[in-house]
Amino acid sequence: MRRDRDPGTFPALWSGLFDDAAVYPPAYVPLHDAVAAYRAHRQAWYAPLVGPLLVPPSRCVELFRLADPDDAPLRVGLTIRPGIHPELLGMAAAGLAATKRIGVSIVELGWHPEWREVGLDVAAVPTALEVPRGPAQSTALADIRRARDEGARVGAKFRTGTTPNWAWPDEAELADFLLDVVQRRLPFKLTGGLHHAVRGRYTTLGEEGENHGLLNVVLAIAAALAEANESVVTSVLEDRDTDRLVARVQALSDDQVASIRDRFVAYAVCAVTDPINELNSLGLLD
After folding, report:
1. 265 pLDDT more than 80
2. Which residues of 228-243 are buried (b: 16+ CB within 10 A; e: fewer)?
3. Is residue 286 in some structural domain?
4. Which of 18, 139, 233, 284 is the residue whose CA sits 20 to 30 A from 34?
5. Domain range holding 110?
6. Which pairs count as long-range contacts for 240-244, CB under 8 Å and 24+ apart, including other chains?
7. How many domains does the chain have?
C-alpha cells in the first residue's frame, strides 16, 4: 500500500468517487464512530478519493455536536431512502448550511413526482434522486432531465445492491440504467453492492451475495458512451476476468476518463477502504 505519495497524483478516474455510507446498512456504524473514522479517512494517504460522509437528516443535531469547530468543516451528504418522508431534508440542509462546522455537499432522496415541493434549493446544492425500477424509471429519468434543463443541479441515483425491499439488479437491468442515463446525458450516483473491483459472489459483513464490480461498471459506462448496444454493455458487466478488466481500465484515455466521470460522479459504500485497497492491490492507483 502506498502511503508516501503526493495527493495530486491519484488517477482522475477515482478522485472523490467513494462516498462514506458507514452509518447505513449493512454496516450500521454508530454516528460518533463514523465521524471519527471519516476524519481519519480525510487525513489518510487516500483522502483525495473519499467523498462526503452520508448521514440521515434525523441525525443532524447529533452530527453538529460531533463536528469540532477547530477542525476543517465536516463534508456531509444528507440522505434518505425512497419511501421515507423527505420534509426534514430541506430543513436540515438549510440548517447545516448556516453553520461553519458542516458543509453539505449533496442531498439525496427517492424520486417521486412531487419531489420539487420538498423545499430543496436544487439550484445551489447538488441533489441525487434515487430512481425506481420498471416503467417508472424512464419517467423519473425524463423528469430529472427536465429539471436539469431548468437549471437544477440534480442527477439520478440507482441501487446496485440488495435491501429487504430491493432485489439485486442483474447485469441486464444495470446495463439498461447505464445506457439510459448516458443517452440522456445525466450525472448519476450508484449505491449499495459495489464493494469489490470485479463482478462476483462475495461475503460482505457475514452475508453472501452477488456483487457488481467497480471496474465492470466503469468499463460499461465507457461502452455506453461509445454507443455500444445493450448486449455489449451487459457482457462487460458480466466479465469476471480480473486481468482483462484491469488492462482495459488502464488503457482508458484521459478523454474517456473525463467523460466517464462527467456521468459517474460518485457511489456510496459502507467501508470506503475496501474498494480503495482492492484498486491499490491491482495497481490501479499508480
Report:
1. yes
2. beeeebbebbbbeebe
3. no
4. 284
5. 7-281
6. 240/198, 240/199, 240/200, 240/213, 242/197, 242/198, 242/282
7. 1
Which position has the higher pLDDT, 111 or 73?
A: 111
- Tell me, yes or no, whether 167 lies in a domain: yes
Cα 233 to Cα 118: distance, rounded to the nearest angstrom: 35
The angle subtended at Cα 157 by Cα 7 and Cα 32, nearest 5°, is 60
185-242: pLDDT as tens digits: 999 999 988 999 999 999 876 778 999 999 999 999 999 999 999 999 999 999 999 9
C-alpha cell belonging to residue 93: 440542509
Query: Which residue type is seen at 8?
Result: G
Q: Is 2 exposed, middle or buried (0-12, 13-18, 19+ CB in 10 A)?
A: exposed
Q: Is the peptide bond before 26 cis (omega within 30 degrees of 0)?
A: yes
What does the radius of gyration of the chain's CA atoms come to, in whole angstroms?
18
Indicate whether 3 pLDDT > 60: no
Asked, for residue 198, whether it belongs to a domain, the answer is yes
Sign of the CA dihedral running 222, 109, 202, 27: positive
- With respect to residue 38, please indicate whether it lies within any of the assigned structural domains: yes
